[in-house]
Amino acid sequence: MSIENDLSLVMDFDKNYCLQVFNLLPVAFTKGKGCYLYDMDGKKYLDMIGGIAVNCLGYGHPKLSSVVAKQAKDIMHACNYYYIPQKSELAYRLCRASFAEKVFFCNSGAEANEAAIKIARSYFYYKDINKYEIITADMSFHGRTMGTIAATGQAKFSRPFEPNVPGFVHVPYNDIDAMIEAVNPHTAAIMLELVQGESGVHPADAEYVKAVRKLCTEKGILFIVDEVQTGVGRTGKLFCYQHFGITPDIMTLAKGLGGGVPIGAMCCTNEVATGFRPGDHGSTFGGNPLACAAGSAVMEIFEDDNIIDNVRDVSADLFEKLNNLRAKYNCIRSVRGMGLLIGIEFDDTITAQGMREQLFTMGFLVSAIGKSTIRLAPPLIITKQQAASFVKALEKILKTVSGPQNVFDKIKNAFPSKKQAKDTVTKIGSAKIDKLDTLDATDNKQSAPADDDDE
Ligand code: PLP
Q1: What is the 113 CA–ligand 1 centroid distance (Å)?
Q2: What is the pLDDT of residues 376-405, one digit of tens each?
């Protein structure tokens, strides 16, 4: 059985069988090539968000795909009781390319940050020093586990799950005085994103990052940089910390590292690595041959194809074009970011959600952050021409905006209301689910319970 080519059925199954934790657009992509995605009807979209900074080499990259396919045939998983050549190789590549001397592999950004938080505490524990507190920034985002929502400086992510894991302190971003004031004898680490991605693409000031590094060194505090979003070429250097002339003690990676295959990594110095002893930390899937082979292929392609040069080139061009638009249209409040991680903030006449949906109808994918900012994080192989086509589409929309809520109103007409969509899906979908159930002889489960939500 396959529901792959029937959107209404996919939507219905999703609604009935998946926890509803995302607001989804009514589309499913069945194929990707380069920087483009194709939906079930063959409509083409330029992906300006790259799976939220994951698909750094776009879709169907010939070398990455063939390495993954070969590795899937040879061996996908080998248990952590044994040596894994692909893990050793990727660890070597990451250390060679950065300040790091040891790497721990896991499967996601949140897990990489969990590892960072744990090692920052156990490092002092084994030295018999009573330091455990971790300072992070307001409006930061570090993941969705219990530890990382406590680290995250946005209460909306942790409120329903309280009580929070203790030992985290939040201070205003880019404010060195607040940071100095927050440090106390129990401070073990300072953890920062060098560009805050999830809260609207806010880069750190160079002086601030340098001052934080100095503070950490003077006070014997570990400096953790969360490069889950900014790492692996996204900002125009392989790792974002390299823009600032400093080195951290710990760096976390995920997203782009596997080019689409789930992987996370916590990279640290040999000194910090003394904080984990055998049995202190682990992950069943972490460091598996498939993910690590993908990671090494990504790193190799970056070198062979000068991907980072492309990031710098396209970024410079794109920033120039976007800033020109800003000069022309007052409704663009700001254009900010680094490399190919860019936030475009609008004034009250445009909602980010409305802009995202309008761009979507025109075949461009972006993400909306908060009320007024859209985020771009396209594949790092994007060309100047492709990026320019996005700017053209954006300008086309801006030209039509003549008053408050204009874009949003258009969108309301273009998309069915939640209730309309639900009625349609229920009507079409239920019939098809019944048909599928009878087709699928091996599935002897009861049919889905009726949807009993907020009608
Ligand atoms: N840290 C940062 C800076 C992120 O942007 C994200 C995800 O967006 C995470 C951590 C969490 O990563 P994951 O969703 O892979 O757990």
Answers
A1: 9
A2: 999 999 999 999 999 999 999 999 885 444
Q: Which of 140, 198, 241 to mutate to test the pocket of ligand 1 (most atoms within 8 A of CB)?
A: 198
User: Which residues, at least 6 apart from 440, have a Cβ–Cβ distance to it below 8 Å?
Assistant: 1
- CATH for the stretch 75-304: 3.40.640.10
Give the domain ranges of the chain. 7-61+307-439, 75-304
Cβ–ligand 1 contact at 429 (below 6 Å): no
223 C-alpha to center of ligand 1: Å? 18
Q: Which of 157, 191, 224, 228 to mutate to test the pocket of ligand 1 (most atoms within 8 A of CB)?
A: 228
d(CA 218, CA 68): 45
Q: Report the C-alpha gap between 8 and 36 in whole angstroms.
A: 23
pLDDT at 401: 80
Q: List, in sequence order, every residue forming a beta bridge with 226; answer none if it has no partner.
A: 252
Q: 118 CB less than 6 Å from ligand 1? A: no
The response to whether residue 375 sits with its C-beta less than 6 Å from ligand 1 reads no
How far is it, in rounded angstroms, from Cα 35 to Cα 281?
37
Q: Is 203 in the pocket of ligand 1 (CB under 6 A)?
A: no
According to DSSP, residue 194 is labeled S
Please determine, for residue 63, whether its predicted confidence score (pLDDT) is greater than 80: yes
Residues 6 or more apart in contact with residue 141 via CB below 8 angstroms: 152, 154, 157, 193, 196, 197, 198, 199
Residue 112 confidence (pLDDT): 98
- Average of pLDDT values for 144-148? 98
Pick the CATH number of 7-61+307-439 from 3.40.50.2300, 3.90.1150.10, 1.10.10.10, 3.40.50.150: 3.90.1150.10
User: From the CB of 110, is ligand 1 less than 6 Å away?
Assistant: yes
Q: Which atom of ligand 1 is nearest the CA belonging to 255?
A: 15
Q: How far apart are CA 4 and CA 434, in angstroms?
A: 16
pLDDT at position 428, please?
38
- Taking the centre of ligand 1 as the mean of its atom positions, its distance from the CA of residue 110, in whole angstroms, is 6
With a cut of 60, say whether residue 44 has pLDDT above it.
yes
